[in-house]
Amino acid sequence: MNAPLDLARLERGSMDELRPALEGAVPAVMATVAADGTPNVAYLSQVHHVDERHVALSFQFFNRTRQNLLAHPRSTVLLVHPIGMTFYRLHLRYLRTETGGAVFERMKAQLAGIASQSGLDDVFVLRGADIHEVLAIERVPVAPRPPGLPAPQARPAALPVLSRASQRLGAARTLDALIEAALDVLQHELDMPQAMVLIADSAAGRLYTVASRGYTPSGVGSEIPFGQGVIGVAARAATPLRINHMTSAALYNQAVLGGYGRDTQAEIAYPGLARPGSQLAVPLASAGRVVGVLFVECGQEMRFNHEDEDLLVALGGQLAAGIDLMHESEEPCGTESDAGAPQAVAPAAAPLRVRRYRRDDSVFVNNAYLIKGVAGAILWKLLTHHREGRHEFTNRELRLDASLGLPDVSDNLEARLLLLHRRLTEQCPALRLQKTGRGCFRFDALAPVELVESD
């Protein structure tokens, strides 16, 4: 640690050039000193940017570092820029510890997202955010300089991308078109080929995937509980989460899918990358509530930067507002049908044996899992009515049917119908759901159907 007089002679760096070193790709090292002058060096979990003159350090344990900091507020932190491998030494002065507020909540969510991937939620708990004044940023000469990570590709200018994205999302007339427009922007404008949109089911405390890009299979219908993994923590904390140094997707998948004692035969596999290097989850917030999560990932480490996060937050805001607006009105069906006449059952089509389990409304077709929950209950209702010769349905009648289990508020019916439509298209095209106008749709079975129920 340097006395104030020494700081004037340092090779100074800036907070702007330092920010990539705060991503955590290379662990930071903190040096403190005890009251008797004994030095101590320890690794840090997080160094968080607060503003141009302050950083926040994670306070997780009552250890020697903590004791020293309270006895002597001056410290230094060594950071490494992971691409240029430039070393920086921050000269800090401890000011206070915050246990609430925006900085604390953001650090808490970031830590929870990382811990959830390794199943260590109970171990890595943030007790506080230690706010430090940055007295100086020193570039530390290193020779020879070790090799760094590959430099990221040049990004397109953010504002023109947002302008085009806004036009595309604004032109969408259905939830399906809206989500596809957002995924098109991520894939073609921002070179983010792996992406998902998940819709929140607040009553069940889960998010379900309604659309994805860059995964085979698509994973449409897969579910993630609030608070699990990067996606679930972003939804629970209602804050963006960006982790640029993923090391084990296997652990991530175990954390997401494990520990629930659920029937894995009635699950759709989470479609994430086997070995992600970077992940970014942005909550879709509208009118003060989280309606879903926009998620992107990449095999490359340090792929997503602060500008990417800001851009996806802006894109996600418009997507969330659109999802809210796409809730179907309960007006009678209009005359804009383009679905044509009802489809007849093909005489030679293979029969479908559809089994519903009442305990969770899970539906299996020819012993293969298709869907469950509210979407499963909707499908069963359509099948039973279809057996009686009916093809045309309205959203209004579904909302009024208490047996379907739709919540009174924010039922996300349109998203559930979109999920059902996509699952049928992918897994059982002989059962067809088509919109025929605003607030109405048609259901056809193109093969003989046998309905069976079990407890």
UniProtKB/TrEMBL annotation:
Q: Which Pfam families match?
A: GAF_2 (PF13185), PNPOx_N (PF01243)
Entry superkingdom = Bacteria
The record's SMART domains line, in alphabetical order, gives:
GAF
Question: Domain GAF: where?
Answer: 174-331
* Residues spanning the signal sequence: none
Q: Which PANTHER family match?
A: 5'-PHOSPHATE OXIDASE PUTATIVE DOMAIN-CONTAINING PROTEIN-RELATED
Q: What is this protein called?
A: GAF domain-containing protein
Per the UniProt entry, what species is this protein from, by scientific name? Hydrogenophaga crocea
